[in-house]
Amino acid sequence: MRFGGIRNFLRKHIEYCCMPYAYQGVQISWLGHDSFYVKYLDKRIYFDPYKIKPKDRATHVFISHEHFDHLSIEDLRKICTADTNIVAPESCRNQLSQLKTGLFKLIKAGDEFETQGINVKVVPAYNVNKFREPGMVYHPKTAGGVGYLVEIGGVKIYHAGDTDFIPEMKNLLVDIALIPVSGTFVMTADEAAQAVNEFKPKIAIPMHYGAIVGSSRDVEEFKKKAKVEVVVLEKE
Question: Are the C-beta atoms of 148 and 64 separated by less than 8 Å?
Answer without folding.
Answer: yes
